[in-house]
Amino acid sequence: MIPMSKALAKYTANLSLQEGLNVLSTFRSHKIDIDEPKNLGGTDKGPSPIELLLAAIGSCQIITLAFFAPRLGVKLKAVETVVEGYLDPRGFMGVSGVRPGFQKIRISTKIQAEGPSEKIKELVRISEERCPVNDNIRNNTSIELLVET
Length: 149
Known about the structure:
By secondary structure, the protein is of the alpha+beta class. It contains three helices and five strands, in the order E-E-E-H-E-E-H-H.
């Protein structure tokens, strides 16, 4: 295990329940309404937490590609990603033996780029290896839950 660095960057999301299932989330100066669709009891004021997770995976991959492309001499012309998650809702309802989270996530990415094919392959490898969101999904990340009542 690699020891924790003293140079850790801290990211914070502040969230508060608004009404029904609607949650207001604030990140730096940005705000996002998070909600469930009406058929699940929400008011559909925003994406659901699970949809945001899919968006986080896809956007992290795209950002990682865009960040490292110029460093490898690759010019990205276009990047499009579709992230699909397959979830059994019985897990959320507490059915024994069924995970509440995704059983499978599929990331489909189309890249239009100019540069040597070996550099483009390296870029794809780097994006999969270094995307922080993918890393958090694929590896166990310690979660400490503190609750005040």
